[in-house]
Amino acid sequence: MLWSDPENEPPKELRDMQDMLRRLGVLMALATFVAMLVIGMR
Predict the structure, then answer these.
(1) CA 13/CA 4 separation, integer angstroms
(2) What are the pLDDT digits (tens) for 2-22?
(3) Any stretches that span the bilayer, and where are they (predicted)?
(4) Model confidence at 1: pLDDT above 90
(5) Radius of gyration of the chain (CA)
(6) Average of pLDDT values for 16-29?
(7) Residue 9 in 3-state DSSP?
(8) DSSP H helices in 1-42
(9) Where along the chain do its domains lie?
């Protein structure tokens, strides 16, 4: 399992996990932004 092999792309599970983490990060950023807006409005 060498990473230098050009035809070897990361397995589907790894890519799915990365996509899920990216979506979670975006959701967390949006939630934090909305929370700051709500706190600022008060």
Answers:
(1) 20
(2) 556 566 677 889 999 999 999
(3) 20-39
(4) no
(5) 18
(6) 96
(7) coil
(8) 12-41
(9) 11-42
